[in-house]
Amino acid sequence: METPLREPTFLILTALVGEPMHGYGLIAEVARLSDNRISLRPGTLYGALDRLVDADLVAVDHEEFVDGRLRRYYRLTEPGGALLAAEAERMRRNVEAATTRLRATTTSPRLSGGLA
């Protein structure tokens, strides 16, 4: 899987940290993690999950029938956790670099508006 991860993919992996989740639970958790900025539709979610399963980043944990419908639960795999950790570290370094530069330039006359 390519990095940097797209934000929806990053949030799907993040949602799966700790416990297996089914599709509707993932949709709700991604919305919560993103402060409702990301609203996954079922087709988008299941397409992403298929790609993540194919890449061995996510696995089907178990299935159950609820109200006559199959509910499939997904879990984060070890490679998925490692990729998520690496991506979180990459993003942390980027935020740190931006924050350091912003602090240094807030007192500098170079930050006078306009775009680079």
From TrEMBL:
Q: Which InterPro entries match?
A: Metal_resp_DNA-bind_regulator (IPR052509), Tscrpt_reg_PadR_N (IPR005149), WH-like_DNA-bd_sf (IPR036388), WH_DNA-bd_sf (IPR036390)
Q: Which SUPFAM superfamilies match?
A: Winged helix' DNA-binding domain
Looking at the record, the residues that make up the Transcription regulator PadR N-terminal domain are: 12-85
Question: Which Pfam families does the record associate with it?
Answer: PadR
- The molecule here is called Transcriptional regulator PadR-like family protein
Show the taxonomic lineage. Answer: Bacteria, Bacillati, Actinomycetota, Actinomycetes, Micromonosporales
